[in-house]
Amino acid sequence: MKTFSRAGKVQSIAVAGLVISSMACGPDNPGAPGFADSLMAAAAMNPSLIEQGREVFRFDTFGNETFWSDTAALHVKVNALKPQDAIAVGLKIDADVLPAELRQKLMNGEVDLTNPANTVALIGLNAVLGVKGQVENGTLVRIGITCALCHSTVDGSVVPNVAGSRLDGWPNRDLNVGAIIALSDALPDAPYNTWGPGMYDPRYNFNTDKPSVPVVLPPAFGLRHVKKETYTGDDVVSYWNAYVGITQMHGHGFFSDPRINVNVSNPPDMISEKLPALLAYQLSLDAPEARSGTYNAAAASRGKVVFNTVAGCARCHLGSAYTDVNANKLHSPEEVGQNGEYATRSVTKLYRTTPLRGLWNPPQLDGPYFHDGHAKTLAAVVDHYVTHFGLNLTTQQKTDLVEFLKTL
User: Fold this and answer.
1) What is the pLDDT of residue 17?
2) Residue 27 CB contacts under 8 Å (≥ 6 apart), including other chains
3) CA 203, CA 327: separation in Å to the nearest integer?
4) How far is Cα 32 from Cα 304, in angstroms, rounded to an integer?
5) What pLDDT is stored for residue 7 in this prediction?
6) Using an 8 Å Cβ cutoff, are 243 and 255 in contact?
7) pLDDT under 50: residue ranges of the chain
8) CA atoms within 13 A of residue 202's CA, in its CB half-sphere
9) For residues 144 and 160, what is the distance between their CA atoms, to the nearest angstrom?
10) Host H or E run for residue 48
11) Are 177 and 214 in contact (CB under 8 A)?
12) pLDDT of residue 207
């Protein structure tokens, strides 16, 4: 990806009488659960704020067509992209916006998935999650991306794992962002084509002299009771929204954080005034509850005891959000047995205890785990900590612990 490094400025936004700065972060700053509750109370008195945020989340490109079309010329490649290839890189279809006849044909397998014209037609119907396109006479002439590209998927009710109703806030772990970027002739293939599905490196374009360190696409649900977002606990939600919207999605705006030596100016500002509504919508997205039948309830009950006692998980996974970041705690890579390369590029140089939410809701949510995805299963997560901390757990205790994690 390219980046624009010109004179930048700090953006602040006011929400319900409170101020969020994209620069400042500390124990008393907005982002604590109490702040989120205050925002939700304000949104309840003004429901249109959440509705506005949903539109921003799903459909606002922040003007990034100037990059993805004018610089990357991605629309040219998409005009030749077969639907089967779009599906192969993880793009999803919002079946609820399709005409009834087309929806039925899609369900029946009667849509030609080898015809690129159908890819363009679906984009023209605003049916491809996270993709906004301008179609003229059957040709895609401009393209942009939205938050929903990475942070929404579908329930598969029309075509399994491909088309159905939106699940906003659910990470699209099938999405191969790197492969999509690498479609562009204006951008290099590497390292993007090495990332793989469900992975993305939001630090690479400021660290191109170092190996890329992609991380697992995180959920955008369950944020309401978590003080700081990102794997490294850099700052509050709107800080990261601004960072990603401007420096990664290439939207128009200004972002500056000398703590990580980032200073981007891409006028005019098309994002800062939308951050309050976007935040309100994100905070309204609850984590999904575990589905009955996807875990062993009796084993999970025993596993909860293991979690809180002999396994020692509750020492860091505190409270209802199961994270000690709300107690202003972060951890060194060595302390938790994680590779520290990604952390070195962050504000904190540390890792946050991941809030335990939506860990197991297959097929959309079934791993991988840890920031770099090196634990492919929940059993691998348990094994990691058993080894790292020298825990003396029986096979039964480990199995029960996995079943409890499935309930979170």
Assistant:
1) 30
2) 328
3) 26
4) 26
5) 32
6) yes
7) 1-31
8) 26
9) 26
10) helix 48-59
11) no
12) 95
The size of the chain, in residues, is: 408
Name which of 281, 285, 268 is nearest 62 in CA terms.
268
Do 236 and 392 form a contact (C-beta atoms < 8 A)?
Answer: no
pLDDT of residue 109: 96
User: What pLDDT score was predicted for residue 394?
Assistant: 98
Q: What is the DSSP letter of 247?
A: I
Geometric angle at alpha carbon 110, from 106 and 113, rounded to 5° = 80
Cα-trace Rg, the chain? 21
For residue 241, report the phi and psi dihedrals to the nearest 5 degrees: -60, -45
For residues 376 and 367, is the Cβ–Cβ distance under 8 A?
yes
Cα–Cα distances (Å) from 296 to 128, 367, 401, in that order, read: 36, 18, 11
Structure token digits, residue 72: 């990357």
Residues near 109 by beta carbon (within 8 Å), at least 6 away in sequence: none
Q: Which residues, 6+ apart, have CB-to-CB distance to 208 below 8 Å?
A: none
| Segments making up each domain of the chain, as ranges | 12-284, 297-405
Q: Which 3 state secondary structure label does DSSP give 55? A: helix
> Cβ atoms within 10 A of the Cβ of 14, count?
10
* Structure tokens belonging to residue 28: 């008393």
CB 118 within 8 A of CB 79: no
Nearby residues of 394 by Cβ (< 8 Å), 6 or more positions away: none
Which CATH code of 3.30.1380.20, 3.30.40.10, 1.10.760.10, 3.40.50.150 fits the domain covering 297-405?
Answer: 1.10.760.10
- Cα gap 344→150, rounded to integer Å: 24
Phi, psi of 384 (to 5 degrees): -60, -50
For residue 247, the one-letter residue type is T
HSE-CB for 119 with a 13 A CA cutoff: 23
Q: Give pLDDT, residue 35.
A: 57
